[in-house]
Amino acid sequence: MSKSDFSQNLLASSSKPQTASEKIPIIARSAVSTRARKTLDLVEQFVEQECIPSDIVFYSQLGEGEKRWTTYPSVIDDLKTRAKKLGLWNMFLPKNHFTEGAGFTNLEYGLMAEYLGKSRVASEATNCAAPDTGNMEVLAKYGNESQKKEWLQPLLDGKIRSAFLMTEPDVASSDATNITLTMKKEGDEYVLNGSKWWSSGAGDPRCEIYIVMGKSDPTNKDVYKQQSVILVPAATPGITVKRMLSVYGYDDAPHGHGHLTFHNVRVPASNMVLGPGRGFEIIQGRLGPGRIHHTMRCIGAAEKAVEWMISRINDPGKKTFGKPLSEHGVILEWIAKSRLEIDAARLIVLNAAMKIDESNAKGALKEIAEAKVMVPSMALTVIDRAVQSFGGAGVCQDTPLANMWAQIRTLRIADGPDEVHLQQMGKNENKRSREVREKLAWQKEIGKKMLKNYGVTERARL
C-alpha cells in the first residue's frame, strides 16, 4: 500500500456513516431511552439537513448596519414551525426536575445539544437557546404561579425572549458578592439603581423580560444573603441600553450583549423571585445546568471544526510541496489528537449530566466544574487546528471557524472564569491531604515489616 493510500484509509476508517444514536458512547448507552434515541436521530437530521443550510439565510436576512438590531430573520420562525412538528421543542428541561419540558434526562439532552452546537440557528429553532434556557429553569424551579403564567409560558412557547443580568462593569463580578446594583424597598415596589453589562440577549427586539440580580440587603452579616433576584420587564421606565458589546469584533446581532443602566427603575415587589436574600441560591441553581449546556454545544462545535479540517486537507486544489495536506504527518496528527480530545471531553460532559440526573446540580458541582473548565479549552484547541489548516481563509469570514472560536473563547469567562472553578476544585482535592499522608505512611510502614519478614534489605529503585 502506498503512503497516499494509507493516509486516505486512515481518514476513512474513522468516518463510517453512523446515526447519532449509534454513536452514543457505550458507557452511557443503557441510560438512554428508546424514545430519546429516536429523537436524537431526528435532531441530527434536522440540524445537518435543515439548520446548517439555514445559517447562511439567517445572516443574509439580517442585512447590514443598524437594521440588524431590529430585524428578525423569518427563517427562524420557519425552522421553529418545523421543529415543533418534529417534536423537537424544549428538550433541555430534565424530566426528573421539571414537568414543563419534553421529558428527557440531562444525559439525553446532552447528546442532542451536541448537534445543536453545530449550527447558529439550531438552538433557537428548538427553543433551547441561552439565556432563555437558564431563565426558564429559574422560573420553573423558583417562580410562583403568577410569574410562571406571565413569563414562563410565553418563553416555553417561544413567543418572547429574555436576558439574565448579573455581571457589572465596575466590579469584579467573578465574585458575585461584589454586585452593587441596589434594590431598595419602597412600599409595594423595589427601586433599582446601577448598571449591568454582558447582558446577553438584551439586543433582541423580542426580549421582554430581564432576570436581574442585585443587592437588597447590603448590611446583612451573611454576605450570601445580601442579594436577590427580581423580574424586570424590558420596557420598564428608567432602563437605558447604553451600547452593545462586541466579542472579538462580532456583535452577535440581533441577540447582542448589552450594557444597561438602571435609574430609579420601579418594579412591583411581587416580581421578587423566591424571596429577598435568596439570590445566591437561585443563581447557583441556574448556572449549574447552564454551564453543562454550554459544554454540550462545545462538543458539537469541535466536531464541526474537525469536519471543516478534513474537508480542507483533502481539497485537491490545495496541495503543498506537491502533495495534499492529508499526506503530511503533522496534519494527520492534528486529526488524531482532535478525535482523542473530543471523545474524552464528551465523556466528561456526559458524566456530569448523569451526575445531575442522579442528584441535582448542587450534587454535581465537581463534575460540572470539570466539564466547564476542560471542554471549552478543548474546543478552542481543535478549532485552532482547523484554522491553521485553512491558513488565511481560517481567520476570515469565508469559514465559520473564526466566529466559532470567538464565541467559545467567552465560555472560559462566562458563568464563572476557569480560575475560580480550578481554585475550588484544587481546594476540595487538597482536603484529602491528611487521608493521603496517613495512607502513604501506613503503606511505607507495612513495607518495612514485609522486608523484615522476607529477610531482605531495602534497595533503591533502578
Whole-Å distance between the termini? 43 Å
**Average pLDDT, all residues:** 94
**Low-confidence runs (pLDDT<50, min 5 residues)?**
none
Helix content: 40-55%
* Main sheet characteristics: 4 strands, antiparallel
DSSP summary: helix tally: 14
Please state the structural category: alpha+beta
Order of helices and strands: HHHHHHHHEEEEEEEHEEHHHHH
What does the model show?
- The structure is a single chain.
- The protein has 462 residues and is an alpha+beta fold.
- Helix content is 50%, strand content 13%.
- Helix 5 (106-116) packs across helix 9 and helix 9 (279-313) runs parallel beside helix 11.
- The longest helix is centred in the middle third of the chain and has 35 residues, at 279-313.
- The protein is globular, with a radius of gyration of 25 Å.
- The chain starts with a helix and ends in an 8-residue tail after the last helix.
- The mean pLDDT is 94.
